[in-house]
Amino acid sequence: MTESKTFNRVSTAILTVMVTLTLLPILLIIIASFTKETALLQNGYSFLPKEWSLDAYYYIIKQGSVILRAYGVSVLVTVVGTVGSVLITTTLAYPMARQSFPYRNALSFFVFFTMLFSGGIVPSYIMWTNFFHIKNTIWALIVPNYLVSAFNVILVKNFYSNNIPGSLIEAAQLDGATEMQIFRKLVFPMARPVVATISLFTGLCYWNDWTNGLYYVDNQKLYSIQLLLMKIMNNIEALKANANLMGAGAVSLPGTSVRMAIAFIGILPILIVYPFVQKYLVEGVVIGAVKG
């Protein structure tokens, strides 16, 4: 009993230190975003800055309507992409987990193969633009790269195999349930932990993505928040690099603090959503990662 208490105390202390070390960079980003640009350049990053300023957020607020539209695009892409990915992933993993499905091994091979090999960026770009014609459409931000993940499919497949007894499915079949009814009313509700896990993984990928927009989107109305903020940051650097031509005002642009404000704005929605799905995350990953 004493050893158990000691282990719990030591584990708690170690985890507390690790969590603190994880949170300190985020706190430093937030503080730096409220620090005056000249103080950052002269004194570097500090948890107790000498001068506070809201210049970075004033600069971002000036881009308010554009940023709000970009936030709307990101929210739409994240929601639609995550829902679509979960539906495709869970339905694809279902026959792979069924022992009675005659082509389950071949299907598993094709899914696993995509984890090891890919065509590359150039062939993918040609395929999506020349054959599927998704350039400058909202689907360019949803379909490529993240809609189906082989890792998530295998994670869900292992969860089905390890946690849903075949006898339960057989009982449903004896009661006259179809495969779709079994999946919708029995399998999917029981897979809530792994569904929450892949939803978080996929949602993070969609929210943080800017490469799809960089490759496939030229229309500014379709800019996601990450892509827009990257463009803003590049514009600031361009102005600062041409300070002699733009005048003294360009020098005072809060470049470093804007970077920190941009980073904070980018991670804020994730910080809000994560606590609601965290309780399912560990269970879904641990159970789904066990070989089926």
From TrEMBL:
Topology class, membrane: Multi-pass membrane protein
Subcellular location: Cell membrane
Homology family: Belongs to the binding-protein-dependent transport system permease family.
Organism: Candidatus Avoscillospira avicola
Cellular-component GO terms for this entry: plasma membrane
Electron transport keyword on record: no
GO biological process: transmembrane transport
Keyword Membrane: yes
CDD domains: TM_PBP2 (cd06261)
Name of the protein described by the UniProt record: Carbohydrate ABC transporter permease
Gene3D superfamilies: MetI-like
Matches recorded under InterPro entries: MetI-like, MetI-like_sf
Principal localisation: membrane
Domain ABC transmembrane type-1, chain residue ranges per copy: 71-277
Transmembrane segments: 12-34, 71-94, 106-126, 138-156, 260-277
Keywords: Cell membrane, Membrane, Transmembrane, Transmembrane helix, Transport
The organism's taxonomic lineage, starting at the top: Bacteria, Bacillati, Bacillota, Clostridia, Eubacteriales
